[in-house]
Every structure is written in structure tokens, then in C-alpha cells.
Amino acid sequence: MVKRIVVIGSGAAGLTAASAAKRVDPEAEVTVITEDEYIAYSPCVIPWVLDGRITWDDIIMHDASYYSKERDINVLTRTKVTNADANSRTVTASGKVYGYDSLIIATGGTVFIPPVSGIGLKNVFTVRRLNDGKKIEKAMKDSKKVVIAGGGVIGLEMALSMRNNGKDVTVVEMLDQVIPRIADKDMAGVAQDHLSAYGVKFALNAPLRSINGTDSVKSITAGDETYECDMVILATGVRANLEIPKMLDLDIGILGGVSVSQSMRPYRNGKEVENIFAAGDVVQCESAVATGPTMSQLGSTAVKQGIVAGKNAGGGNSVSGTVASPWVSVIGNIHIAGTGLSENLAAWYGIRTISGKAKGYTKARYYPGGKELMVKIVANADTQTMIGAQLIAGEDATGRINWLTEAVVNRTKAEDFLARAENAYCPPTSMVRDVVISAAEDLCRNLKKVIQ
Fold it and tell me: Is residue 44 annotated as a catalytic residue, yes or no?
């Protein structure tokens, strides 16, 4: 009998899961149902499309016909699931009922909309899907002053994109730093200063209180100040899209995501549900660093989890491990990256921290074209294990943060990392002793002071 696999959602987790399921069971009947018009694209790239570096057509890798012809996967776009029934093992979408043997929930997340007045005014946008980007692009032509609500990574990338389009840009952030939680103030401040040099303005400790206007937005009030603007972009964080999980009465975790096992099976009343799987922004998973759950709403995590969910839905037996959530962003001429826990986030988990820092260059000092590089490593003061890292570089941040992620995931002690660490050396690519190692040396010195 042919296995019927239904996937709800066409983002990184959903399409990856569909393809993985098909590889495990080539005879399976795989159907992907999505509300989106466009599929197989990364929303992370929207700021650079608006910047004019690439086009909308460039970022769409495949359409529904590709999946039908090349992978024998049926993708239904512009189709909303209105009901999901675990007892009958069916989902209803656009009036049609689809039976399933395995169901994969990859509904992703939705932008958190602050509960303030004026949200429905013209020229107030979220930035989550390709169509969001197209709406912003259209409105940009007649806009001069833009407010970005939210100083996270997406907010900063959008701020610079708007500034490069000649707009007057103000970022309002409710906390006292940009890139809160995942970056520490000393590192995030470098990114803020870099953007300030481009002319981006900042208002910190300024929660969004209202969006003002009659038909179109005319200003916003954040904190105790009012800022004139004719466009508002909400980059206020992402929450798991729980519409389908709630229909199926699945357990929702403390962080607001679906609780899943390492096989990506959700729970209902504390017990694994055998024939349902969930992956991507909709789930909460286990932290590789701290005891307890974390949200890892990253494309790389979605793909990792989607592969496991798809394999298991197809009849496999795979597991997805804990996550350190490495991230990287290019803001102007700098890369800023992180992994594991920042000092701020570690404090939320009740972990006492010690850090080490070092500055240097991405190439040998004497080699032309080298960029400044700053590395910070965070350790658990009690266990001396490396629990996180952040770096700012003029180039080549990704390889270094991946190196540090491996140490964080393995809960490596700082002294052990330093004893084993080696870096490839060539003057055009690194200093003879990489800045990562110098930061580890500083960390070990600081840890010894605590022990003494």
C-alpha cells in the first residue's frame, strides 16, 4: 500500500522534509500544502534584494512544477489548511480532504505584532515572506523616512538596506542594546556604531507605543518620543505558528514552540505521537549548551530538522541532536556572528560566566587587505566549559564561528580547546596564530583568576 505523506508548509523545513521522505520511500505519495504563492526561497535575503544586489527571480530556486516533474512531489500553493484531525488522520485544505499516514508540520513562524494602535495603517509592513518584500519595494518609491521597529539582526539588515536606498532611517528598540539576547552589549555596540556611520539613527530603551496617522502612517511613538515617518517595518521577532498544532492538541512548550523528541515527533499529553512530525520555526528543541529548551529559528536548523522529520515520516529512524544555533549577519562592511549562549542569555539560564576577548586581523599583519577581527568566547565559570562565542570581522566570520560551534556543542573545557586548537596558516588567509586562539588564551587566564 502506498504511504501518504502530507507536509504543511513550504519553507526550509517543509520542502526539505518532503524531499527527504521521498528519498526514503520513493513510492510514497507526498503532498506539500502551503499558503505561500512562492516557494523554495530564503526570506533571509530580502534586505539584499531591496538593496538592489540581486533580484526576486534570482532567489526563487524552484517552483511547484519542478517538484512535480523532478521529485514526484505535489506542491499546492495558495492553499490554506483549515482543519487537521488526528483521529481520522486527515487535513482539510480549500474544501478538499487529504488523508495521511504521516503528517509533517512545518508551518514556521509569524512576525510578532506588538499590541499597539495603528498597526493597520497603510505603509506598515512586516518582513517575513517574499510578498512582504515586494510590498516594501513598491512603497519605498514614495517614502522618505523609515522607522524599523526592532533592533535584531533582520532589523539592522533592513535598516542598512533602507539607508542605501537613500531613506532617513531610525531603529527603535525596546531594550538597551541592538541584537539583544544573542549578542552581548560590547559586541553589538560595534555593529550599532558601524551603522551609525552610515547615517542610521537609533532609539534604545524605546518600546513601540503607537503608530500614528489616519490613513497612512505619519509617525510612531516609542518610549517617550515621537518620530516622523512614512513607512514602518516591523522586525519585532518571530513566534511559532501554532494554528495547526493546536488543532491537533499537541503539547506546547514553555518557550511557545511545539515540544518534540529527537525524532521530531511531537508530544500529546506528554506522550510521543507516532505518525506526526514537526520541524523548523514551529518547534522548540533542546539546547546543546544549557539544560532545557531553546528556540532555534534559523534556516540551517530548519533544514537539519526537516531532514530528520522527512526521513522518519518515510519510515526511517533518524534523530536530530541538540542545537547551539550558530548565526551570522553581514551588516555593511562587517560580519557579526555568534553561537551558543551570550552572557545575557546564559544569565537567563542561571549560568555564571567568564569571558575572554582578543583583537587581530583576518590576514597576516603585513599582508595587504587584512580586516579587523574581534573574538569573544564565553565560558561557564563553574565547569570551565565553552558555552558561547561572538565575533566581528571584516570578512570570513562563518568559518571561525563554525569552528567555535563545534567546541560549544562538545562542551569543551577552555584549557582543552587551547591545548588542541590548531589553525591553518597562510598570510592571505589568517594570522599565524588565529585570533580565536588568542581569545581562548585570554579566557583561560580569566578563568584561572576565578579559580585562584
Answer: yes
Q: Which three cell numbers stand for residue 312?
A: 522518519
Task: Give the cell for residue 361.
Answer: 586581523
Choice among 44, 229, 285, 444 that is catalytic: 44
**pLDDT at 164 > cutoff 80:** yes
pLDDT digits (tens, 9 = 90+) for 367-380: 999 999 999 999 99
At 87 the three-state DSSP class reads: coil
Q: Residue 353 in contact with residue 375, Cβ under 8 Å?
A: no
Q: Which three cell numbers stand for residue 409?
A: 556543542
Q: Rounded to whole angstroms, how far apart are CA atoms 448 and 23?
A: 51
Displacement of CA 365 from its chain's centroid (Å): 34
Residue 452, pLDDT score: 61
pLDDT (average), residues 379-384:
96
Cell numbers describing residue 244: 495547526
Residues 274-312 have pLDDT tens digits of 999 999 999 999 999 998 899 999 999 999 999 999 999
Angle ∠(328,332,334) on CA atoms, nearest 5: 50
Contacts of 443 (CB under 8 A, 6+ apart): 354, 355, 356, 377, 379, 386, 414
User: Which residue carries 596558516 as its cell?
Assistant: 425
- SS3 category, 410: coil
d(CA 95, CA 4): 19
d(CA 423, CA 400): 10
**pTM of full prediction above 0.90:** yes
Which pLDDT band holds residue 449 (cuts at 50, 70, 90)? Answer: confident
CB 226 within 8 A of CB 213: no
Residue 386 and residue 362 in contact, taking contact as beta carbons nearer than 8 Å: no
Question: What DSSP string runs through 290-350?
Answer: SSSEE----HHHHHHHHHHHHHHHTT-------B---EEEEETTEEEEEEE--HHHHHHTT
